[in-house]
Specification:
There is one protein chain. The chain contains 13 helices and 5 strands. The radius of gyration is 34 Å and the shape is elongated. A 5-stranded mixed beta sheet has the order 2-3-1-4-5, with helices on both faces. It has 371 residues and is an alpha+beta fold. The two termini are 56 Å apart. The protein has 2 domains: 194 residues, no CATH class; 155 residues, Reverse transcriptase/Diguanylate cyclase domain (Alpha-Beta Plaits), CATH 3.30.70.270.
Length: 371
């Protein structure tokens, strides 16, 4: 029978299989849509320019080709500077101008109206709900003005009344459909992001105590050791263990033992500084990482923790009780590895227990004098 994956390892596997739905990835998605839309717009403009040239409308043909060049330049610039949002706004502005122009001239059989129906499908993925809605409302008001306003230009198309109504109503309906579709898509993405963050949290924290788990602490320790090497700053570690915890489980039961672990974990978090990290290393053992802290500072922190934990009162059906902890210190030396640092702390914890428990080893006398 195959071995079961440890819980934290199982979460890691799930996370690796789940796509990362960050805002950066959404911007990349918008970017690719903008590229495709830009190329499609460019091709459409080229064919429109050719059609105008065939019909003898050379000034319109020239305007179409100039717009195509601007679109292609915008794509080129965005590819070089990685400006996804600039690309999205640029494509939408250019396409909106093309749609407005097509609306003005009408095209063959008033086909210019249909260009505007692409706007909602383009705007919402590229611009997001708020900006796209404002953008489409603007285009709708411009369309209303072009159709019903008094415009004294000879080549402006003259649409039948029923065509105007059908066009505006269809544009509004398509916009609303895309609005609710984008709203639903965003809600789904937010839900997936929330689920991802929960899985990530479960993969990095101990389920019972809420502290970092062993794997997360090893990663944090490795990172802080490299940072210490780069900045030549001190780094210390405390390995601590609840004294005679087996007796607590035997005498009061495992439920009370779990409650004791929770209370001690809360006490550790409340006592530590914001820059420090605490983890449940395994069973009743904890590892505390102290960045920017030399040996004397680590001793002071360990003694504060020892006194605070001894004062924690734990309730049970058999009465209240307290526990004590022993602490082993390790301060990073040059070229020391993660395992070597943990081993030093483990040896010192063993000495503290051999010397009678409820103490910190090694004793830093100059720091002890300040307590």
């Amino acid at each position: 029978m195959p071995n079961k994956l440890p819980k934290d390892r199982l979460y890691q596997v799930i996370i690796k299989k789940l796509p990362v739905l960050s805002h950066a990835n959404l911007d990349s998605r918008r970017f690719y849509i903008a590229i495709i839309s830009g190329i499609a717009t460019s091709l459409a403009l080229v064919f429109t320019g050719i059609e105008f040239a065939i019909e003898g409308l050379y000034y319109l043909s020239f305007a179409s080709f100039i717009t195509t060049l601007i679109t292609l330049v915008l794509i080129h610039v965005s590819l070089r500077c990685d400006a996804e949002r600039t690309m999205a706004y640029g494509i939408c502005v250019i396409y909106s101008c093309v749609c407005t122009f097509a609306l003005l001239i009408g095209g063959v059989g008033n086909a210019g109206l249909f260009w505007s129906f692409m706007l909602p499908m383009l705007a919402y993925p590229l611009l997001g709900i708020t900006v796209a809605t404002v953008y489409l409302l603007g285009h709708l008001f411009v369309s209303l003005y072009l159709m019903y306003g008094d415009i004294s230009i000879t080549w402006v198309a003259d649409y039948p009344e029923d065509t105007k109504v059908r066009f505006l109503l269809t544009l509004f309906i398509i916009s609303m459909v895309n609005f609710f579709n984008e709203l639903s898509r965003k809600a789904n993405i937010d839900e997936l992001e929330t689920s991802f963050k929960k899985l990530e949290l479960l993969a990095l924290t101990d389920e019972l105590t809420g502290l970092l788990n062993r794997r997360a602490m090893r990663e944090k320790l490795s990172y802080e050791m490299k940072r210490s090497d780069r900045g030549e700053t001190p780094l210390s570690l405390i390995l601590c263990d609840i004294d005679h915890f087996k007796k607590v489980n035997d005498q009061y039961g495992h439920d009370v033992g779990d409650e004791a672990l929770k209370k001690i974990s809360r006490c550790i978090k409340q006592t530590l500084r914001q820059s420090d990290f605490a983890s449940r290393w395994g069973g009743e053992e904890f590892v505390i990482l102290l960045p920017m802290t030399a040996e004397a500072g680590a001793y002071v922190m360990a003694e504060r923790l020892r006194e605070a934990i001894a004062a924690v009162v734990i309730n049970s059906d058999a009465g209240t009780f307290s526990v004590t902890m022993s602490f082993g210190l390790a301060t990073k030396k040059t070229d020391m590895t993660v395992d070597e640092m943990i081993k030093v702390a483990d040896i010192n914890l063993y000495v503290a227990k051999e010397n009678g428990r409820n103490q910190t080893y090694p004793v830093i006398h100059e720091a002890a004098a300040l307590l």
